[in-house]
Amino acid sequence: MLRYLTAGESHGPVLTAIIEGIPAGLSLTSEYINRQLARRQGGYGRGARMKIESDTVRLLSGVRGGLTLGSPITLQIENRDWDNWSKVMSPEQDGRVEERVVTRPRPGHADLAGAVKYRHRDIRNVLERSSARETAARVAVGSVARRLLEELGINVMGQVVRIGSVEAEAGSLGMEELAARLAGSQLLCADPGAERQMIIEIDRARKAGDTLGGIFEISAYGIPAGLGSYVQWDRKLDGRLAAAVMSIQAVKGVEIGLGFAAAGRAGSLVQDEIFYGPGRGFYRHTNHAGGIEGGVTNGEVLVLRAAMKPIPTLYRPLRSVDIITKEPLEASIERSDVCAVPAACVIGEAVVAWELAKACLEKCGGDSLTELKDNWNSYLFYLRQV
């Protein structure tokens, strides 16, 4: 069983994650994870904190000599701004928790709902954990899953297809062409013309003290048929993927394949016709289903898109109410980005990789990478003979 937990506050000393269920013998280094953490911090439109933090991970358990042991893996990411917050965020009674108290909830954040739920009178107790800073730990966790998928011939890639009102001409690019187009992109956008317009729109929003959202697309290549299940609601892979992506801060919608567009088409223009080739097995000429039918992968490329709302923290704040005095005021301001859709795309890759790794282990699991790959290759051979 593959599972993980994360812990840590936005301005606490560290973010921590513990992973259980990774097979023994997987090659894994901190440098590999750090490359994904750096991608999360990039992207045009990020805020001031990205100039402070330069995330790197420490492997504290479960790995020896560059190979996983099969025991729980502990990942730790240091918050480099901790020195400036060590008194305010101290767990000890000699801290100065009365400093930087927040009582004005920001519309669109978990501030008010969280304060009411946990009976906090200082909203900092909410925003420190609900912050998207937590996703650094999830990217680290997803990087471990990505490393496992690579051993099975599966690659997960994301691209930004919309920011604000600017939509990219994404098309259906192959994995190599998509990777080449994204290599030099500031926004993980495969359409250079659209990217230039996106940057102009981000600059316009920054000057106005506003923020922008958008849409990112995740594709997974090399997925065989048969991952997931139709027999119970909580085993359907599309449901699990949707839940994972919806759990990313500010994501408000998820679709797979045609998604919402399918609702406006006739059935004959939505379903993917089935063909068969000796040595190739069953395949489709179209991929409107996005690689999943009935909660089970069908052997085509998995395609998922997510809509991210504009970041709620505005430098021209909206109206709010003080939770103590009930006085109408402007919402509080925390450090924030103008646009974080590229970062959300990297996080999306991570959570999708995690769910796919879980599904692979459920289908062909093993305590060691050797055992897993033996089972995996046997299953692929079976698919070619069906």
Strand order of the largest sheet: 8-7-9-15-10
- Overall helicity: 25-40%
CATH superfamily: Chorismate synthase AroC
Low-pLDDT regions:
none
Major β-sheet profile: 5 strands, antiparallel
Task: Detail the topology: elements first, then pairings.
Layout: E1 3-7, E2 14-20, H1 30-41, H2 49-52, E3 57-61, E4 63-64, E5 67-68, E6 73-78, H3 111-118, H4 124-130, H5 135-151, E7 155-163, E8 166-167, H6 175-182, H7 192-207, E9 214-221, H8 237-246, E10 251-256, E11 274-277, E12 281-284, E13 292-293, E14 296-297, E15 302-308, E16 319-321, E17 328-330, H9 341-364, H10 369-385
Antiparallel strand pairs: 1-2, 2-6, 3-6, 4-5, 7-8, 7-9, 9-15, 10-15, 11-12, 13-14, 16-17
What is the gist of this entry?
The chain is α+β, with helices and mostly antiparallel strands and 386 residues long.
Would you write up a description of this structure?
With 386 residues, the chain is of the alpha+beta class. It has a single domain, classed as Chorismate synthase AroC (Chorismate synthase, AroC fold, 4-Layer Sandwich), CATH 3.60.150.10. It contains ten helices and 17 strands. The strands form six sheets. The protein has a five-stranded antiparallel beta sheet with strand order 8-7-9-15-10. Strands 1-2-6-3 form a four-stranded antiparallel beta sheet, with helices on one face. Strands 4-5 form a two-stranded antiparallel sheet.
